[in-house]
Amino acid sequence: ARPRVGYYYTGKTGGQLFQERLLKLKVKDFQSIPVVIPENASVYDGICTMFLEDVGTLFVVNNNGKLIGIVSRKDLLRASMGKQDLESLPVSIIMTRMPNITVCSPEDSMLEVANKLISKQIDGLPVVKSDGDGGYDVIGRMTKTNITKAFAYIGVEEQS
Amino acid sequence: ARPRVGYYYTGKTGGQLFQERLLKLKVKDFQSIPVVIPENASVYDGICTMFLEDVGTLFVVNNNGKLIGIVSRKDLLRASMGKQDLESLPVSIIMTRMPNITVCSPEDSMLEVANKLISKQIDGLPVVKSDGDGGYDVIGRMTKTNITKAFAYIGVEEQS
Question: What is the ipTM, given to two decimal places?
Fold first, then answer.
């Protein structure tokens, strides 16, 4: 009798199966809650928010809650070394602005996000939903921490 | 005739093969070059080094080149918000000290490192070699960026 070993004949190589399994890991399954600040927040506010929320990336939104910028820990450290008064310096001066922001959507694969983070040399990006009017609502946060969790996850999962 | 499909009968499930493949990814294959500063460096020196070298984690070494501390971008941002003069504040005051430093070695798997980064909530750790005398030489740097690169790597590799 044929031994029951828990795999099916598919004609695919191990490498292909590996890739297919990876591609099933979606942003929506690993994303974190986004931390946003208003565009009139100061750099000082931004630094406080970053420590209070313990995140490395903040998203800046306008009065309508639409994404207009992104600020990293590196941006804030650079600003803190300047001569300006951090409480009067608006975060909108130092942020990276739309359309220069790399985004992702909930249905994207973690693999796409990993490639974006590496190729753009960024720490994190917003998970967004287009409002159909050229704007983006921020619905999540994806960082190298989420990728690291996905990496650890595939090391323990037992799929059938 | 039996079709040649590029896999062997091993009696293992897909999940097990997946894990085995992951465990073959070693620190030594993905590690970055470490950036170290002397223990008498100032916080200001640390921040400059971090920007010049474009890293998020610095390792602090003593006169003999042995690891005594680690400083993150977050530590430096916190220090920069204080009232102290950054040029006279020694980095050794704000660093995380041995033996509270999580380390790894070149032969560790990337999976072990991913789990350490997640469970300890740290951004990076030194790759070390024990000098046999209780001290550690820093020979590499492992961060969530390296894990992200490993994740992207397994998505494209074609193993036989």
Answer: 0.88
